[in-house]
Amino acid sequence: MSMRKTIPPELEGEYIIRVMDLPVGSKGFVIYDDDDFANVYINAHLNDKAQHAAADHEIDHMIYDDIHNNDDIRTIESRADGKAIPVLPAMRRASELPRPGKRHDKEELKIKQERFDDWKNDWYINAPLFDEY
Quick check: 32 and 65 in contact, CB under 8 A? Predict the structure, then answer.
């Protein structure tokens, strides 16, 4: 497979590209070995143009050192695709996040807790007794 992308000199000799059968949804991926040598795997079921695009995408992951950074996956993939990096919402404290489900007011929750306590007490009072053997 000949490459169309210009490879930075620091990556020369630091990777190998292998074309092999991969699952249908997978275009390619990079795995680094213990010596930090990159093994790029490209799906053999793709046409030549798609294989070149997948190889370029994986090389971009190597150029941006994505395996060693903590960027958001959307940022990593957009950068490797050559797209604009998405603007991500700022992180918020857990107390500021919206709660899933129906919102209950405090009075309603208090009534539900009282009903549960009544049921629990009634169950303990009327629970069947078991003979000890």
Answer: no
Long-range contacts of 30-34 (CB under 8 A, 24+ apart): 30/58, 30/61, 30/62, 30/67, 32/67
Tokens of 51: 């294989």
Pair type for strands 28-32 and 15-20: unpaired
Top mean pLDDT of 49-63, 66-80, 83-97 is at 49-63
* Antiparallel, parallel or unpaired: β 15-20 and 38-43: parallel
The predicted structure's pLDDT at residue 43 = 95
pLDDT of residue 2: 47
CATH architecture of 9-80: 2-Layer Sandwich (3.30)
Kindly report whether the global pTM for this prediction surpasses the value 0.70.
no
Q: Which runs of consecutive H residues, i.e. helices, occur in the chain?
A: 48-63, 73-80, 106-126
pLDDT digits (tens, 9 = 90+) for 2-17: 455 566 666 777 888 9
Distance from C-alpha of 92 to C-alpha of 16, rounded to nearest angstrom: 41
- Is residue 18 within 8 A of residue 40, CB to CB? The reply is yes
